[in-house]
Write a sequence for this structure.
């Protein structure tokens, strides 16, 4: 266990360094002169030169790269070319909002997704299973930016139940969290359903039923426990999807998270912020995948011996 | 998971898909979208407003009527004409991006799985790095850097789908490599490229075939999402995501300008997802979602 844990933690390091390298390369992949483009069409040559020095583009690339990596180790992600604030501080004020949104969306997705999947598996082939399967495929197919806008029309404009935009009141999180959760609900419910069907046909479950254990006991103690193991991986995978989806969700609902910061920075050609957000999101995802793998291996010993 | 698709079964695959409940709906929806993309622009010809970019400010924001079935947008452009023309952009983008990703993913994945050793290790570490970014974020960052436009959009979507094709091909190749006939071919001293091309890749294709429609659906979603944020193809191209993004400013007064393009995107994605599910069920019943 210890050995697997350490190896798995160690494997994170090259990936994080790789993600940092990709973030570094972003600015250098810009076709043409990054300083010129970043400064905007109305900038004077002096402003462009100033920006070139600020972005470090006047120095050799390897020096820029070493500096970039060195700064990352000290927690510095550079300075916004638009606001002059440190990128780390800008991300720091926005990140809690994105995490809050993703947390609620994931919670809704796990509860609703597992419920739909379990009920679907128990009533396999019946009308309710068909309806829940339809709900799940609609969930993974409906674009979040469309569903989100439709929800605003219905729940904010027509019914007036929830605010349409911003994060001013606790109720503000409801619509974006529900919209963001739909894709994961669809995904989790399908995986739960098929894992549950597998678990229900396991010898242990059949034996328990044959021994006369009540339905609730069998489902709760035997089948569910076995079914939820693969679901953990799915939840981990869905987190990445959710971070991507939150960019669109935040844009629809005016939610002040890093997704909105990213889109604004792209529109302002504020490249240090773009690089910072890309890197921070990657690190977040790498850590969640690590946690998922470790949790999975703690529950299912076959994983650590298989690899 | 190696799923074999012998040549003789290819014609019966379509029949099997048609018999399968969800892939039948998928085939209908995808067929409808394809039909609209190919034929649709010719069907809505006939009056001046059949040009998707024909503006008539005197006729802006009309509701549904006999001359404008789905009404007009804020510049007086016919909504139905724009939607029908938009099908092409969405489909060309998604299919081109997924084709590039699938072909390059197939090559890289096959090499990685067949070569093994340090080649495999290096390729897998690189794939890990690409996968450490959420797909949509990666596509968004690439478009932000390369600039908007159809070509860059295709590149961005292809790059974000590429690592998944590498993974799928590699695991298919690894499974097939253990089969006796591949070992036999190797022991006969056939050159590796020939073994790969003649024996390994054709039999590892099954998983790739399952993956492709699902990836097209996901590419439609990514492309429309970028269009929605104003980072897709340039104005005034009637791309569905961009139309939805434009309509957003008029959400409270004219919600139909958001509703219709949204339904179009939804139908296309739903079709490809159902088709993908069906193909997976038909080729590999163990993973059945509907039975």
């Amino acid at each position: 266990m210890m050995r697997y844990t350490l190896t798995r933690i160690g494997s994170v390091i090259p990936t994080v360094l790789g993600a940092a390298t990709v973030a570094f390369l972003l600015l250098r992949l810009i076709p043409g002169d990054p300083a010129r483009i970043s400064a905007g069409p109305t900038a004077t040559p002096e402003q462009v030169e100033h920006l070139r020095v600020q972005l470090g583009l006047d120095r050799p690339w390897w020096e820029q790269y070493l500096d970039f990596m060195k700064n990352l180790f000290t927690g510095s992600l550079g300075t916004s070319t638009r606001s002059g604030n440190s990128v780390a501080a800008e991300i720091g004020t926005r990140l809690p909002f994105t995490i809050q949104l993703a947390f609620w969306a994931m919670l809704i997705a796990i509860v609703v997704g597992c419920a739909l999947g379990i009920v679907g598996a128990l009533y396999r082939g019946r009308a309710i299973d068909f309806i829940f399967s339809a709900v799940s495929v609609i969930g993974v197919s409906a674009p979040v930016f469309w569903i989100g806008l439709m929800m605003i029309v219905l729940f904010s404009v027509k019914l007036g139940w929830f605010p349409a935009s911003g994060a001013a009141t606790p109720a503000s999180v409801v619509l974006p969290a529900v919209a963001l959760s739909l894709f994961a609900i669809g995904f989790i419910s399908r995986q739960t359903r098929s894992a549950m069907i597998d678990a229900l046909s396991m010898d242990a479950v059949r034996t328990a039923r044959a021994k006369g254990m009540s339905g609730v006991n069998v489902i709760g103690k035997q089948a569910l426990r076995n079914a939820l193991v693969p679901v953990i991986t799915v939840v981990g995978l869905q987190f990445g999807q959710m971070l991507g989806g939150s960019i669109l969700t935040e844009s629809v609902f005016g939610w002040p998270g890093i997704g909105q910061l990213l889109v604004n920075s792209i529109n302002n050609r504020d490249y240090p912020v773009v690089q910072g957000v890309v890197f921070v999101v990657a690190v977040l995802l790498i850590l969640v995948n690590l946690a998922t793998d470790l949790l999975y291996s703690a529950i299912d010993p076959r994983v650590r011996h298989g690899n | 998971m190696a799923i074999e698709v012998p040549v003789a079964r290819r014609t019966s695959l379509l029949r099997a898909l048609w018999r399968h409940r969800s892939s039948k709906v998928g085939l209908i929806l995808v067929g409808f979208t394809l039909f609209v993309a190919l034929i649709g622009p010719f069907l809505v010809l006939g009056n001046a407003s059949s040009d998707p970019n024909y503006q008539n400010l005197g006729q802006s924001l009309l509701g549904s009527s006999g001359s404008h079935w789905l009404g007009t947008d804020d510049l007086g452009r016919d909504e139905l004409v724009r939607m029908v023309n938009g099908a092409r952009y969405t489909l060309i983008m998604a299919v081109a991006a997924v084709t590039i990703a699938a072909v390059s993913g197939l090559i890289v994945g096959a090499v990685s799985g067949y070569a093994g050793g340090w080649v495999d290790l290096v390729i897998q570490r690189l794939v890990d790095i690409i996968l450490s970014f959420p797909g949509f974020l990666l596509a968004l960052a690439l478009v932000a850097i390369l600039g908007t436009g159809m070509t860059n959009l295709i590149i961005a979507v292809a790059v974000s789908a590429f690592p998944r094709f590498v993974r799928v091909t590699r695991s298919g190749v690894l499974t097939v490599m253990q089969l006796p006939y591949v070992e036999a071919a190797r022991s006969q001293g056939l050159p590796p490229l020939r073994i790969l091309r003649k024996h390994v890749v054709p039999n590892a294709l099954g998983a790739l075939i399952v993956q492709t429609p699902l990836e097209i659906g996901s590419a439609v979603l990514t492309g429309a999402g970028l269009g929605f944020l104003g980072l897709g193809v340039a104005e005034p191209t009637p791309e569905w995501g961009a139309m939805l993004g434009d309509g957003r400013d008029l959400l409270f007064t004219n919600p139909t300008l958001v509703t219709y393009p949204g339904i179009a995107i939804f139908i296309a994605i739903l079709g490809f997802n159902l088709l993908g599910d069906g193909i997976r069920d038909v080729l590999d019943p163990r993973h059945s979602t509907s039975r």
